[in-house]
Target: Probable dual-specificity RNA methyltransferase RlmN
Amino acid sequence: MKKEIKPEKPFIYDYTLEQLQDWIKEQGEPAFRAGQIFDWLYVKRVSSFDEMTNLPKPLREKLEAGFGFVTLTEITHFRSKDGTVKFLFGLHDNHAIETVIMRHNYGNSVCVTTQVGCRIGCTFCASTLGGLKRSLTAGEIVAQVVKAQQLLDPENERVSSIVIMGIGEPFENYEATMTFLRNMIHPKGLNIGQRHITVSTSGIVPNIRRFAEEDTQINLAISIHAPNDALRSKLMPVNRRFPFEDVIDACKYYIEKTGRRITFEYALIGGVNDRAEHAEELADVLKDMLCHVNLIPVNYVPERDYVRTPRDDIFEFQRIMQKKNVNCTIRREQGHDIAAACGQLRAKHMEATTG
Model:
């Protein structure tokens, strides 16, 4: 296994405001300096400590000695006809991650990555090709949104929502994901509304329950993709660790604890999980839950054999769900012409660089 290359210094974006306040106190500096640093990072969005001109030079030197900025080197990017922009960024250790900016009529959404690769093993997803290399730090997740905002700044636009649906399983990188979320929603940070953020998990049961205790308004989405244990285990090997029934029980606990609706993501795969009997079975499982089902026509991945569900069958699946009083919508596709599904761009890059 390739040896992990550690950054020389911790990333400044790894720190919450409260952690920066503790650091400032240790340096013998007045507490308000932490707020100034946070302002430079998230409001003015500078790229070096030298630009923090209202800080004393000795403090800037301490910051330079103690912290680094996340290196996100743009390897390539693609722009879709619908305005979606997908970036492939290189990290300090030569790994690559993907970040996507999606344009909606209600604003700009950023889809972020939480891990380099993924070990969950979903058979329809390109993210898992090559397995998991490492988890990102909180700062490396933060930097993706800051980078996106910097790209929008010249247009006087802002990131209005975030989806944690990029490469990786955020609930297997729980602490870093939560630090990232706290920085995103902080009034002195990017100040993104909690209800404009969605975190998606493949069903890591202990952390679904843990997330229920976090007292946030952040949306939770669960990748479900099958109506029963047997089929879900074929599509999602993680189901052998966290069986379908346990996932549903954890979701019911989350709903009871928070009073918030859960979104179930269901990728429709032609001839695999998209038949009428699958819709009937899924509706029976979910009919009494405060939930919403998001149907996702599967993206073609060259390394997989799956095909897309015919359009009429997609609408029939939705009709059956709605007939049984389960709220169900079909996801509007974006970036289909630029391989915007998770992991596709990175997979191509890996193939090119490894021969």
About this structure: The chain has a mean pLDDT of 91. The domain at 73-354 is CATH 3.20.20.70 (TIM Barrel).
